[in-house]
Design a protein that fits this description.
Length: 144
């Protein structure tokens, strides 16, 4: 007799549509895993903490929830450093599927110093210049 195997944390990367996702179940599953991590940390079971953190970072449910939170917060209409805004359900689902831990390379920061009131300088890390013409003026100010 065969039984259907429930995917890890209830979500499969083969989700048909963004609107068909049971968000209540997804939230409960991610929250349950977070609680298990907290409990293991309280008990000082560091190997268990590490294993559970690995599960959380690789779970498709966590990626779905992350994309949902980003697309529903107050900055949802602001493009990221790649200039992309996820507005449609298809793009949100594609974003959740494309999130991976490997291959991510953060943009380097440029260290500039700004004056403080007491005359000393304070370091400030800012991303390297964007290539969009509308933001070129910012680059000119930074590169003085």
């Amino acid at each position: 007799m065969t039984t259907a195997v429930k995917p890890l944390f209830g979500a499969s990367s083969k989700v048909a549509s963004w609107d068909a996702i049971d968000w209540h179940a997804i939230k409960q599953q991610v929250q349950r895993l977070q609680m298990r991590i907290a409990k293991a940390a309280r008990e000082r079971r560091w190997g268990k903490v590490q294993a559970l953190q690995w599960l959380l970072t690789h779970a498709f449910s966590a990626r779905l929830l992350a994309v949902r939170r980003v697309t529903q917060n107050s900055g949802r209409n602001t493009a990221g450093v790649d200039g992309v805004v996820w507005k449609t359900a298809a793009r949100k689902l594609m974003a959740a599927r494309s999130l991976q831990r490997r291959g991510y390379r953060p943009q380097p920061l440029r260290r500039i110093y700004i004056p403080k009131k007491n005359g000393k300088l304070r370091p400030l890390g800012s991303p390297l210049c964007p290539t969009a013409p509308s933001k070129r003026s910012i680059c000119w100010v930074w590169n003085r």
